[in-house]
Specification:
The complex is a heterotrimer of chains A (about 130), B (about 110) and C (about 160). Chain A contains 4 helices and 5 strands; from the N terminus they run αββαββαβα. Chain A is of the alpha+beta class and about 130 residues long. Chain A has a single domain, classed as Dynein light chain 2a, cytoplasmic (Beta-Lactamase, 2-Layer Sandwich), CATH 3.30.450. Chain B is an alpha+beta fold. Chain B has 3 helices and 5 strands; from the N terminus they run H-E-E-H-E-E-E-H. Chain C has a single domain, classed as Dynein light chain 2a, cytoplasmic (Beta-Lactamase, 2-Layer Sandwich), CATH 3.30.450.30. In chain C, strands 2-1-5-4-3 form a 5-stranded antiparallel β-sheet, with helices on both faces. The chains are: A alpha+beta (about 130), B alpha+beta (about 110), C alpha+beta (about 160). The interface between A and B is small, with 8 and 6 residues.
């Protein structure tokens, strides 16, 4: 599972955060408090929770209708904003579900400045396998 | 007198707004500043499009009839609710409002 | 009347009489802007790993596409992309009200990353990528630059 500190090392990272499936912000790191604050991250987390849910509904519907596999479970949703992007991942939760665990870890998210954003690096960090216990 | 003012006379209705297809506030009545009414109208417009988009997808994937086009929606909070049908939206007090009656009235007035 | 509008009308009239046998080659012009956008779609399809690309009208149910999708599936993809774009735009506008100049508004697009495929959408153009063969950064950069001047007024 990518830690918030690891996410903050991504190029252009402005903030990293964890949130519940229902959208509540749990923890955050902010690189530029004058440009992004906890209140924005709270709204962003709720927005991202909504987007993950909708994207999951779409992936399930699409796979059912087209028989084209490879979209579900949604690993990351990214919103490319005007100057900034936000990437959120629920992959760790899927891993926990696969192992039959009832208690799931939070979603993770990172806010990136568009000019430096490396989406593949963000996905790679978020999809990094957990170290063996 | 505008027909939508009829809705304001119902129990628990604090605000009622009529908005254009692009979300612009056409008329609004009740206990709210004009700027906030404009925001409420824009929100109702956006929310309608989003709910309609999601309902369209549900219908598309399931092949189930009867969901789309949606007539309206209700967002129920702790003390207040927002209800919308067509291009009308109203803000109601949960303790006083009879939602069924309000939805019926909204539906009727939205046809005018 | 603008030349492209005449061409669009002409193309639409012709399209009524032509049924293309290969679904992967069906091209339906959306609007005048749609025709302009088709060059981006063609460029996208030439990139490694791109399975299909197309564009959808912000309003209404019209779309055009190229690639390995049936017309029905492309129609579904257009509906999904339109719905998510509308949602993202609404969310961006709300965020802007609560937190002005948040840097996210107006949204340029969005990306959904699945285990094998990725969907990238910028403005009204969508692109479906095979993760193993395509470059996500390259695709997003290309689409962002190619569609930077597209106005979001029509959303």
């Amino acid at each position: 599972m990518a830690t918030l500190d690891e996410l903050m090392e991504l190029p252009g990272a402005m903030a990293a955060f964890e949130f519940r499936g229902s959208g509540e912000l749990l923890e955050q790191r902010i690189a530029y408090p004058e440009r992004i604050n906890e209140s924005t991250l709270d709204l962003l987390a709720h927005m991202c929770a909504a987007n993950m849910s909708i994207a999951t509904m779409q992936a399930r519907g699409w796979e059912k209708v087209t028989h084209m596999k490879g979209f579900y479970p949604i690993q990351e949703f990214t919103l490319v904003g005007f100057d900034w992007s936000v990437v959120v991942s629920g992959l760790d939760r899927e891993r926990f579900k696969d192992r039959g665990k009832a208690s799931l870890p939070p979603f993770t998210g990172v806010v990136l400045a568009n000019e430096k954003a490396d989406y593949e690096a963000a996905f790679f960090t978020m999809e990094k396998p957990e170290p063996a216990p | 007198m505008s027909m939508i003012r009829r809705i304001l006379a119902l129990d628990g209705v604090n605000v009622v707004c009529h908005f254009r297809d692009d979300g612009y506030l056409l008329e609004g009545y009740g206990l709210m500043a004009r700027d906030d009414m404009a925001r409420l109208a824009q929100f109702a417009h956006d929310y309608r499009r989003m709910a309609q988009g999601n309902a369209d997808q549900l219908a598309m994937f399931t092949g189930m009839r009867g969901w789309t086009p949606p007539h309206g929606w209700i967002l129920r909070g702790v003390a207040q609710s927002v209800c919308s049908v067509g291009n009308l939206v109203c803000l109601v007090d949960n303790h006083e409002a009879l939602l069924n009656e309000i939805m019926l009235e909204l539906r009727e007035v939205s046809h005018w | 009347m603008h030349l492209l509008e005449i061409l669009t009308m002409f193309y639409e009239k012709c399209a009524r009489f032509v049924t293309h046998p290969n679904p992967a080659l069906i091209i339906k012009p959306v609007t005048t802007r749609g025709l302009t956008g088709m060059s981006i779609v063609t460029d996208l399809l030439a990139k490694p790993g791109v399975i299909a690309a197309g564009e959808y009208a912000y309003r209404g149910d019209r779309f055009s596409y190229r690639g390995a999708l049936s017309e029905e599936h492309a129609r579904m993809a257009s509906i999904m992309c339109r719905a998510t774009t509308m949602g993202a735009n609404m969310e961006g506008r709300m965020l802007e009200v609560f937190q002005p100049r948040s840097g996210l508004f107006p949204p340029r697009g969005w990306v959904v990353h699945g285990p094998e495929y990725t969907v990238c959408v910028m403005a009204n153009v969508f692109c479906m990528l095979d993760n193993a063969k395509g470059s996500i950064n390259g695709t997003i950069d290309f689409m962002t630059q190619a569609l930077a001047k597209v106005s979001s007024d029509l959303i």
